[in-house]
Amino acid sequence: MTVFAPDSLELNRKLPLWYQVSQSLRASILGRPPQAPLRLPTEERLAGHYGVSVLTMRQALKELETEGLISRHRRRGTFIEPDVRRGVPVPLLGSVDAIVAQQSGEPSTLLSQETTPVPPELAEHFPGLSEVVSFRRLRRDPETGTPTNWAENLLPPDVAALVDPELLERWPMTKVLRDEVGVAVSRIANTVQARLADPGTARLLEVPLLSPILHCTGISYDDRDRAVDVVRIHYRGDRFSFSVSVDADPH
């Protein structure tokens, strides 16, 4: 039986491990895709995934069970409650040009570029691929130098090979793909979720651990409806809000 794959987590040893694990797993459950399986991995596999003891994992699972997010059945396993409501995606409508303009105002630092296995939760966007190329960047406010968000772009290797990393310090990936590489970006699908800052995000954005952040996932498709870029952006919750303007027929 296929099992649900939770997000990874970088733990901070100064906070209770069970609490960090429970909050991370909770966010994964509430933000899971509609087609995601309901069965969780075994306690042993989850403990190994998060790098904690089985005892710590049991404590985290007990917390989620108390919340009503999961149910545990002897000899059958642990399951996400089917009636648990997933996070509702917030649609962001507009043109590709508008998205490029929104992303172009902040200086960006390239943190890393490396080939990495396709994250299980994103495998549906990269059919037939076992690896993608990851570009990680940090953006800062041009006036104060304060970090505003960090982003990870995941690209198919053949597309990533055409990207000049130096351009990413000046321009957003969407502009580089469209205007420099020549990819016909036809549409971008965005979803936004509220999350808590894990240790890595807290360090990069210079905010306290478990601070509220906005987590945006954007999937760029070419004219053949192939995903050419999946970006995950972590925005400081105290620096961003999203607004939507809707035109109404006066009649």
Write a compact overview of the structure shown:
By secondary structure, the chain is an alpha+beta fold.
- The total domain count is 2
Sheet of most strands: 6 strands, antiparallel
Annotation, overall tally of beta strands? 8
Q: What value does the average pLDDT take?
A: 85
Tell me the helix content.
25-40%
Strand order of the largest sheet: 3-4-5-8-7-6
The low-pLDDT segments are none
Cα shape:
globular
Question: Topology as H/E string?
Answer: HHHEEHEEEHHEHEE
What's the CATH class of the largest domain, please? Alpha Beta
The value of Rg in angstroms is 19 Å
Give the end-to-end Cα distance, rounded to a whole number of Å: 53 Å
CATH architecture of the largest domain: 3-Layer(aba) Sandwich
The named CATH superfamily of the largest domain: Chorismate lyase-like
Q: Output the CATH topology of the largest domain.
A: Chorismate lyase
Structural class: alpha+beta
- Strand content is 25-35%
Helix-strand blueprint:
Elements: H1 17-30, H2 43-50, H3 54-67, E1 70-73, E2 77-80, H4 96-103, E3 108-117, E4 131-140, E5 147-155, H5 157-160, H6 173-181, E6 185-196, H7 199-205, E7 212-222, E8 227-236
Antiparallel strand pairs: 1-2, 3-4, 4-5, 5-8, 6-7, 7-8
Helix pairs in contact: 1-3, 2-3
